[in-house]
Amino acid sequence: MSIAKKLKANRNRSLELTDLDRDRLRPRLISIERLSSDLRTGTIQADSLEIATLLPTGFVDLLILDPPYNLTKNFNGFKFERRTVEAYTEWLDAAIVQFKPLLKPTASIYICGDWLSSASIFTVAATHFIVRNRITWEREKGRGAKTNWKNSSEDIWFCTMSHEYTFNVEAVKQRRRVIAPYRTQDGTPKDWQVTAQGNFRDTHPSNFWTDITIPFWSMPENTDHPTQKSEKLIAKLILASSNPGDFVFDPFLGSGTTSVVAKKLGRHYLGIEQNEEYCLFTERRLELAEIDPKIQGLADGVFWERNTLREQEIRISSIE
Does residue 70 contact residue 88 with C-beta atoms inside 8 Å? Predict the structure, then answer.
């Protein structure tokens, strides 16, 4: 093996499972036979559309939906086929009909999608919920295209069940570096603060996010799931639209990001995923969350711009 390959392998922090891990974690998964009305946390291995009616009604404070986009995609043996916009809209509507009875009257809902599925999402969401906003987040990397614009963004639709809902704006402020600091006439910094590491301003969040990094091989939260969302992204949704002790539900759990972040932030959580390997990744990540509850890009009660938090940590350590 070359030195370059060996060094790259050493820097790869992606999570992997051993056979011993699988054997140890498998008994933790909740089967249909083990469902109960007092279920507080856990990972159910099942098709969420088939078992939603077995769950208690009115228990969810926050629903995070990251359904398969309208693309042909293989999820570790489970294949989702691209269909017409009309057919995808019907499929999504059928899913929402299954999950809606589980929500509290004060619940909030976030539905993830790309440019193609967003039309269907809005149509369905407007039928069942109050649509509050559309968040667009920039993908740090995007695949090039010779005959079209490069796709480098995705959407998250924010909805509520009613006009009474939770939104903690102070919990999701973003710390931005001040490039051209403005001062009052007496020289006092205006709306920003001077620190040993630079000048920063804590700002209210907008619906356009440019600070999200898609999990990749050097991040310990990374798994081999093809559409994994970052913990930082999900943390924004959970902090904004739930309180400690609330119940967060994700019926398309994937490799477990929603459950992991909910655990780190002191929420109850329930996730459903039909692929056993992804369920086991979830349980392993939940274990690791007990050891290290940090969320990349979140510190001091604010979200930092992409890569800036790490820069500050390096500067502080060099000063010390």
Answer: yes
Are the CB atoms for 282 and 255 separated by under 8 Å? Answer: yes
pLDDT, one tens digit per residue, over 209-221 is: 998 877 554 565 5
Contacts 24+ apart (CB under 8 A), 178-187: none
Supply the mean pLDDT for the chain: 84
Structural domains in the chain plus CATH codes: 41-170+206-319 (3.40.50.150)
Q: pLDDT tens digits, residue range 135-175?
A: 999 987 666 778 988 888 999 999 999 999 999 999 999 88
Contact 65, 271 (CB under 8 A): no
Q: Is 111 exposed, middle or buried (0-12, 13-18, 19+ CB in 10 A)?
A: buried
Q: Which of 290, 256, 288, 289 is nearest to 272 (CA)?
A: 256
Q: pTM of this prediction?
A: 0.85
> Phi and psi for 61 in degrees, rounded to 5?
-90, -35
- How far apart are the C-alpha atoms of 279 and 260, rounded to whole Å? 12
Cβ neighbours of residue 124 closer than 8 Å, sequence gap 6 or more: 89, 92, 93, 96
**Contact call for residues 240 and 246 (beta carbons, < 8 A):** no
Please tell me what DSSP assigns to residue 230.
Answer: P
Mean per-residue pLDDT, 119-124: 97
